[in-house]
Design goal:
This protein folds into three domains: 307 residues, 3-Layer(aba) Sandwich (Rossmann fold), CATH 3.40.50.12780; 67 residues, Luciferase, Domain 3 (Luciferase, domain 3, Roll); 92 residues, GMP Synthetase, Chain A, domain 3. Helix content is 32%, strand content 28%. The chain is built from 18 helices and 26 strands. Strands 2-1-10-9-11-12-13-14-15 form a nine-stranded mixed sheet, sandwiched between helices. Strands 16, 17, 19, 20 and 21 form a five-stranded antiparallel sheet that branches. A four-stranded parallel sheet has the order 4-3-5-6, sandwiched between helices. β5, α5 and β6 form a beta-alpha-beta unit. α1 runs parallel beside α9, α2 crosses α3 and α10 crosses α11. The longest helix has 16 residues.
Length: 501
């Protein structure tokens, strides 16, 4: 089944239901949204000699767009046509975008006007929203939703590994359907009166949760700012009502602080699902005190989208439980369609209380990495996805994460992989060695810190990073040292560096 059929289904039984809003202003009903998606699909599939793009089932179409109603149309139009969507982080550097386009073999790039000027010379044609070329994509008669098998790739999500080389995670139509049903059963039942607001990038978790709201016929709200602004969200919660959003912990902290200091009314918020990084227990307790029992935590990753564990609001609301503090420090228990376990490096399953590698299996686990069979074999063993995270399960099945074996830094909900930053810094001729780690930060979760052996000026290192990688990956702190601590095998001891902060 094509996951885009969810939009066709809702549009068929509720064509006049409000679907998409810019702020509190309706811009599309479900019928209108589906019609636009169907017309875009028709043009994408039509032969070039009849004004189309001649794309075939499974061809990749990249979306390099900031949040907008057009993003929702593009996303479902691509899927409706039986094509594979490649959502690209709008913060990426042009070099990084070029790599994704080339590696994925994207046949077409859809881009928002604010990003069009930054496009590198690309391997595929690009169409900018709001232009005559974009308008021309909707001139064809609507196309029926194209059939896809459950195992066909729907969403090709690029994430980086420990080597710093981005890998394309193949998320199938079945993965997305299981994730969607799990959201409704495990995370937060959705009502047509609800309103999902896109304060986080649609290219990531916020966009993945689109399908649950479409299934329920709920409203989709794009803030006028296109992103996260606490005051704007509070105003929308009152004018739109029943607001639900996915947020990184840093966003939750900023929203709670705004409500606390401005004495704003939180009653218009229905649910805040947080994930993408740890949230300290004290911050969570304050959030609940200020906003009430409106929070749900999820733990997932690109390879098992949004669907590994859940810490539901009923657990967060249970103030009398004797292990409340430990549960708040956990990431919850397994969501219904998956099994979660902790393993020793040799694959032995460990009993409750012991620490090891977190593994997960189920129909929501990715099909594999795009054109990377060796990486796929390393990540999925005997049906289990090895997440790269270290943790332990308690006797009740609650998972507590201890560390990230891949050394990923999570800053503001975005993953930053030390190796790719290190490789850039090592390009400077006055840098002989470098190690990048995350430093705890009360606002962002972590910030990037680079330990540098050499005499390169900080300004030149900053300029090098800005020229090669996205701005948010640039180190915020440089520590110049005579040597990096290493073990007997020459491996840098990043634990020692963390302890020195």
């Amino acid at each position: 089944m094509n996951i885009a059929a969810l939009l066709a289904r809702t549009a068929a039984h509720s064509p006049d239901a409000p679907a998409v809003l810019t702020g509190d202003r309706p811009v599309a009903t479900y019928g209108r949204w589906a019609d636009r998606a169907a017309r875009l699909a028709a043009t994408l599939r039509a032969p070039a000699d009849s004004g189309g793009h001649g794309l075939r089932p499974g061809d990749r179409v990249a979306l390099f767009m900031t949040n907008s109603p057009d993003y929702l149309v593009a996303l479902f139009g691509v899927l409706w046509a039986g094509l594979t969507v490649v959502p690209v982080n709008a913060k990426l550097h042009p070099r990084e975008l070029a790599y994704v386009l080339d590696h994925s073999g994207a046949a077409l790039l859809l881009v928002s006007p604010d990003l069009a000027a930054t496009l590198p010379p690309g391997p595929c044609p690009a169409v900018s929203t709001g232009t005559p070329a974009w308008a021309g994509l909707f001139s064809a008669a609507p196309l029926a939703v194209q059939h896809r098998d459950g195992g066909d790739t729907a969403w090709l999500f690029y994430t980086s590994g420990t080597t710093g080389t981005p890998k394309g995670v193949m998320i199938t139509h079945r993965n997305l359907m299981i994730m969607t049903l799990s959201y409704a059963s495990d995370v937060d039942p959705v009502d047509p009166a609800d309103a999902t607001v896109y304060a986080a990038p649609m290219s990531h978790g916020a966009g993945l949760y689109t399908f649950a709201s479409v299934l329920a016929g709920a409203r989709h709200v794009v803030p006028p700012s296109g992103g996260f602004d606490p005051a704007e969200l509070c105003a929308l919660s009152q004018s739109v009502g029943r607001l639900a959003l996915f947020a990184a912990p840093t966003m939750v902290r900023r929203l709670v602080e705004h409500i606390r200091t401005a004495q704003a009314d939180p009653s218009g918020f229905k649910t805040i699902v947080y994930g993408g990084g740890p949230m300290y227990g004290a911050d969570l307790e304050q959030a609940i005190t200020v906003m009430g029992d409106r929070f749900v935590q999820i733990y997932g990753q690109g390879e098992c989208p949004m669907t590994i564990t859940v810490l539901p609001r009923r657990v967060l609301a249970d103030r009398s439980h004797p292990r409340r503090a430990a549960r708040l420090a956990s990431v919850g228990f397994a969501q219904s369609p998956v099994e979660v376990a902790v393993c020793a490096p040799d694959g032995r399953f460990l009993p409750p209380g012991e620490t090891g590698d977190v593994v997960v299996r189920g129909d929501v686990v990715m099909a594999g990495y795009w054109n990377a069979p060796d990486a796929t074999a390393a990540a999925i063993r005997d049906g289990w996805l090895w997440t790269g995270d270290i943790g332990s399960l308690d006797a009740d099945g609650f998972l507590t994460l201890k560390d990230r074996s891949k050394d990923v830094i999570i800053s503001g909900g975005s993953n930053i992989y030390p190796r790719e930053v290190e490789e850039v810094l090592l390009c400077h001729p006055l840098v002989t060695e470098v190690a990048v780690i995350g430093r705890p930060d009360p606002d962002w979760g972590e910030t990037v810190t680079a330990f540098v052996v050499g005499t390169a000026p900080v300004a030149e290192l900053d300029a090098l990073c800005l020229d090669r990688i996205a701005r948010f990956k640039r180190p915020k702190d440089y520590r110049f040292v005579d040597a990096l601590p290493k073990n007997n095998y020459g491996k840098v001891l990043k634990t020692a560096l963390r302890q020195s902060l």
